[in-house]
Amino acid sequence: MHVFTAEEVRRFFFDQGIDKEIHTFEESTENAYLAARALGVQLGQIVKSILFLADGEPVLILMSGDMNVHNKKLKKLLGARKVKIADSQTVLAATGYEVGGVPPVAHRQKIPVYLDKSLERFSEIYPAAGAANNMFATTFQELAGLTGAEIVEVATPKKKT
Fold first, then answer.
1. What is the pLDDT of residues 11-46, one digit of tens each?
2. FRET label pair with 87: which of 60, 98, 111, 153, CA 20 to 30 Å apart?
3. Are the beta carbons of 74 and 112 closer than 8 angstroms?
């Protein structure tokens, strides 16, 4: 199975007529903590792209890096009996990308996208761009438009450990 890269994301932006710079880092940005450190921004400004299976069907949740998905809220929103985070093989099969580099756009198949309001509090946010060391800058409104996402509230603050 072909693994997608930042090239698919670049092509998506080009096809949309959007001049968007994809930042590549020496270090990994595969999780919100590493990405925030590499960019020098708040953890909450990092957009986590989390693929869930809702009654077996993939859905993508775009969420602030300092939040988690509240499973009961997500189940209710989707009207699903069972919701679980997809494993890495399912993520690759559905999106085309490896875990840690899943962008909010340019997926292998059409996936319903949900954008959590937890990201709305920042003027600039940073999703992955197809690899575990690539990111791009955007705004909440631009991301909503690029993805055609439904705006939702399924976030819960991360528990302090």
1. 999 999 999 999 999 999 999 999 999 999 999 999
2. 153
3. no
